[in-house]
Amino acid sequence: MTSQPSPEDFTCPLPLRDYPNIVLGHGGGGQLSDELVQHLFLPQFQNDQLAHLGDSTVLEIGDHRLAFSTDSFVVRPLFFPGGSIGELAVHGTVNDLAMSGAEPLYLSASFILEEGLPIETLQEIAARMATAARQAGVTIVTGDTKVVEKGHGDGCYINTAGIGLVPSGIEIGPERAQPGDAVLISGTLGDHGMAIMSAREGLQFESTIQSDSASLGGLVREMLAVCPEIHVLRDPTRGGLAASLNEIASQSDIGFELEEKRIPVDPIVASACEILGLDPLMVANEGKLLAIVPPANAELLLATMHDNPLGKQAAQIGHVTESHPRMVVAKTAIGGSRVITTEIGEQLPRIC
Amino acid sequence: MTSQPSPEDFTCPLPLRDYPNIVLGHGGGGQLSDELVQHLFLPQFQNDQLAHLGDSTVLEIGDHRLAFSTDSFVVRPLFFPGGSIGELAVHGTVNDLAMSGAEPLYLSASFILEEGLPIETLQEIAARMATAARQAGVTIVTGDTKVVEKGHGDGCYINTAGIGLVPSGIEIGPERAQPGDAVLISGTLGDHGMAIMSAREGLQFESTIQSDSASLGGLVREMLAVCPEIHVLRDPTRGGLAASLNEIASQSDIGFELEEKRIPVDPIVASACEILGLDPLMVANEGKLLAIVPPANAELLLATMHDNPLGKQAAQIGHVTESHPRMVVAKTAIGGSRVITTEIGEQLPRIC
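^ inputs. structure came back:
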């Protein structure tokens, strides 16, 4: 052991890629987003909590462990099948808190409104936020409103930040995946991204694709009640399952082996993705969770998840392996295998 | 005593004014902002903490009292004499926490970037945020980045949310002003708003007006050390001193009597205001605080404030009275008196 800093601990203050300007991909949750964080924000804001890079950060306040998280929402259109920016703003932050095992408690809500937004629209958004907050058991306790000139926004951007309490005994984090762990997913993938895409582009399928936007706090509570030893929880939003698994693989220094045919995808979403040349594993979800758990607990957890409306289609889709660290590999339906990478930018801009 | 709800407790779910659309004034911190909160957000998000309407809300977590606050920043231009959106985003939320007497501890930082923003500009903003955070003694522990298409933002909007710890024994709130209390201000008024205005409009005065953007956490700590009985603290940002005093007057059900000649205003700011037809009492500050304190403590507090670089020009500018509740009256320099009202909208849009 030595106290010398390892060269691996140094971060370069300049983004690796030679983009002189911000591009849409920097907000996509893929490699470009990651580079912005690693090479621009982290060197400036350097501290242990931020370096942890989970969906939320866990702070010690006296004897309590507080989860703290924030997200801005810029989704277009503001209303879409299955939800709106209002529900998304509540569910997004509630879910980030829940992914650290916390009981979500309080939210802030901050609005950047565009001059000319109908008051009625804002009223509808606020009503939907209020309903979503009540259902998720959180209280919106503080807020802010700014207005920008017509043409300088998109009607309404919302930021929420949230505070939750992590029960004692719970230790969840992206660095805790162990070889042999089971990889569970709570339901079908890609619904949210494809719902937004269809609404935005006016695409028609046999039936309307609904966003899965939902608060996962209750499902997490039930899962932790039967298995407090869950290692990692993550809601695969921007960048989809692919981005979440690759992040965990690199933070836990392990690999993933998935069985593609076990990954639940709604048939309509699957065909929409096929038509548009998208991979459902890279499309955003807003009401799904990924759990990495000790293999002995997988069965019980799946049974518990199946009892919750948000986990009816839960499935074990693979396991953690030490044979190819920092790599996500899927066995395909025809018996081959493919490496699942994180996108550089984003397939679908402005989906949350 | 009766448990019947009083008609005064009802809020109307419709904004009082007949604006069908959001106008810039809804973000100005004046009467329109207040109506949006009272008649649109509060009826939806109804709860005790939010109804309190201070700069931050105080939450009980176990034995601890946590201050929680949020602000979005949409200032134009991004850089101005005396600061940038980066410092503002840190100071704004740190100050909101400090105004509840809390020791500011942690910040979140969430960016909405416009496609095409030079990475160099973002780097400069992040560096300034980091410096401001270090100086204020807070840590940026969690964040988020979204990107919107060119033409849908203004380079960079930032949201920060913050958590602080309120020391035991401290009870500060906008409803605690008492008749006889002294009204103290920590320095000159109107500097920030006029700095932004001059930078934006290219106005030239004898010398450049600098924003007063600063973290008030240290000053508050020193003030509370000599006088834990401070009743109200407020940083008069959007809407200026006029909006802050009118809000407190209505929440404490008291009136204010000010002596205009005692209110410190920089001569350059005063003449800039005169040229533009603005009232410095209604112009935003980003590094000033208003303290409403028991009269017996006023002298000691002023002496303490004078010892801090941010309070060198602190002054007692008036007192709390019961003779005209919910009204702010100033004795003018020529011996008359005028009623200081809150603006309907805003004098200067996009100043924070």
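Chain B has a mean pLDDT of 92. Chain B touches chain A through 81 residues (CB under 8 Å).
thumbs up if we can close this ticket
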